[in-house]
Amino acid sequence: MNITIHQSYLPQDDPDAALAFYRDALGFEVRNDVGYNGMRWITVGPKGQPDTSIVLHPPAADPGITDEEKRVITEMMAKGTYAAVNLATDDLDGLFEKLQAGDVEVVQEPTDQPYGIRDCAFRDPAGNMIRIQQTK
C-alpha cells in the first residue's frame, strides 16, 4: 500500500495576501481558485510536484462551527497558534534572504537545531507558522 500526502489545509483570511505570499514569495503555482458565497478556496503547490498541494481556505466556512469557535479561531490565527506547515528547500539561506527582503514576518533566522536540522520560520499573512528546513 502506498500512501502520500495529497493536500493540507491552511486557513487564510485575505485571499489576495495569501496569493502574494504563496505564489509570489514562495514561488508556488496556483492550481485552483474557487469562489463561493463571497469566500475563496485557493489551491497552491510547489512547481514540479503536482500531487502535493496546500488548500488555503476561509477559516470558519464550516457551517457546524459556532460563533464562539469562530472567535477562538480568529484569535488563534492572530497569535499564530492555529495552523502550521513545514516545508523544505535545498537553498535555505537563499530562500530566507528572498523572503526577508519581502513583506513577511520573520520568526526565526536560519538556525542549526540541536536535533539535527537547519531551519528558519516565518508567519504567512494569516498568521500560520511556516517552518522551512534545509534538505541534505
Automatic annotation (TrEMBL):
Where is the signal peptide, in residue numbers? none
Q: Name one Pfam family in it.
A: Glyoxalase
Q: Which residues form the VOC domain?
A: 4-135
**What highest taxon heads this organism's lineage?**
Bacteria
Q: Which SUPFAM superfamilies match?
A: Glyoxalase/Bleomycin resistance protein/Dihydroxybiphenyl dioxygenase (SSF54593)
PANTHER family linked to this entry: GLYOXALASE/BLEOMYCIN RESISTANCE PROTEIN/DIOXYGENASE, GLYOXALASE_BLEOMYCIN RESISTANCE PROTEIN_DIOXYGENASE
Q: What is this protein called?
A: VOC family protein
Name the lineage: Bacteria, Bacillati, Actinomycetota, Actinomycetes, Mycobacteriales
